[in-house]
Amino acid sequence: MDFEFHRIKRLPPYVFEEVNRLKAQARANGRDIIDFGMGNPDMPTPPHIVDKLIETVRKPRTHRYSASRGIPGLRRAQAAYYERRFNVSLNPETEVIATLGSKEGLANLAMAITTPGDGILVPNPSYPIHPYGFIIAGAVVRHVQVGETAEEFIAGLERAVRHSVPPPTAMVINFPSNPTAKVVDLAFYEQIVDFARKHDIIVLSDLAYAEIYFDDNPPPSILQVPHAKEVAVEFTSLSKTYAMPGWRIGFAAGNAKLIGALTRIKSYLDYGAFTPIQVAATAALNGPQDCVDEIRTIYKTRRDTLVDSMSRAGWEIPSPPATMFAWAPIPEPFRALGSLQFSKLLLQHADVAVAPGLGFGEYGDGHVRIGLVENEQRIRQAARNVRRFLSNAEAILAECDAGIDSPILQQRVGSS
């Protein structure tokens, strides 16, 4: 029987899959791949957080079902974080919910608030869950190009509202941005809140990289804006801040009605994260924060090493002001190939894996995303490989034009 599933048919082929396949094949052939492709933090979780997990997991009563919306202490800890970091007061009973990472929270809130056919405004390029969480829920997504400035993005939102039938019901914003690393100021959020209130639009703000920034201006929260809680919910995560990606702890905070809707949906779907993980996450938020500074410093050092060493290799990469990513323009000789083909060639000829920008939307195709997930020595090694790759650009492109694989390429990826 040939099964066809409506929601699955709405999901395009996974753009990263071809690069991932080549990466796995190369490793199977014994090659040392320097992998910048996935934003998977490689640093260990700070010891005091791990110790709290171990201490708690030894108590048998914590092995039972947990609380879907998060244990009270964890929700209070998140509210306290917002108070000290953003000077924003939140009611932990009605305005905060713990999620299984920000990705799960975004997807389930999309499911909770979406009627099939609703129009949703989503930045492009964007982290895939931003559009596809709503697409899975049955929405119609209207992509808004991020552009070079905040003003361009606001103008794009205004055009989208004018030309959308029916009018949009919700929008997603994500700053500091994955993948572009763009940042915004509080004045931008003031415009977003005014826009949303004027057009009766719900705002989902993804602030997962609130603590990974590299200058003296910490990224603001949309909830700092007066009246923001009338229209907005904000998602945060412990994954990058405390190097806890596999622990799957995030939060949604803001509008009580939207938090209530997410709470209702989650009550049918899960029992929350394992209680010892929630207790350890509480210790992360309430405990010493010098570990956050240390993690931020490591990313900053890696960023500086990447930008400097790649520049010396002939690849000019703008220095990202925040996040654990660099948004790198495809070098000029390869620009016409697009991000997927360039990513494949970089892997095949330089043993360097990156994420093709096309995977984040059509407007990302002129770039690749580089994750700061390798140490400085490996970054410098990657730059040396890239130097050789770029110096051989003419020959590589000639082989591409001829539609043949070079002997080197055949040897490396097993082409027949």
Give a written overview of the molecule:
The structure is a single chain. With 416 residues, the protein is of the alpha/beta class. It has two domains: 6-44 and 291-413, Aspartate Aminotransferase, domain 1, CATH 3.90.1150; 61-286, Aspartate Aminotransferase, domain 2 (3-Layer(aba) Sandwich), CATH 3.40.640.10. 44% of the residues lie in helices and 13% in strands. Helix 6 (129-136) links the parallel strand 3 and strand 4 (140-145). Helix 4 packs parallel to helix 10 and helix 11 (290-313) runs parallel beside helix 13 (376-391). The protein is globular. The relative contact order is 0.16.
Give me the number of helical elements. 15
Straight-line N-to-C gap: 34 Å
> Which overall shape is indicated by the principal axes computed on the Cα atoms?
globular
Total DSSP E strands: 12
Instruction: Give the biggest beta sheet.
Output: 7 strands, mixed
Q: Kindly give the count of domains.
A: 2
Question: How large a portion of the residues is in β-strands, by DSSP E?
Answer: 5-15%
The CATH architecture name of the largest domain reads 3-Layer(aba) Sandwich
- Run of helices and strands: HHEHHEHEHEHEHEEEHHHEHEEEHHH
Quick one: CATH class of the largest domain? Answer: Alpha Beta
CATH level 3 topology of the largest domain = Aspartate Aminotransferase, domain 2
Provide the low-confidence segments as ranges.
406-416
Global Rg: 22 Å
**Average pLDDT, to the nearest integer?**
92
- Order of adjacent strands in the largest pleated sheet: 2-8-7-6-5-3-4
Give the % helix.
40-55%
State the secondary-structure class. Answer: alpha/beta
CATH superfamily of the largest domain: Type I PLP-dependent aspartate aminotransferase-like (Major domain)
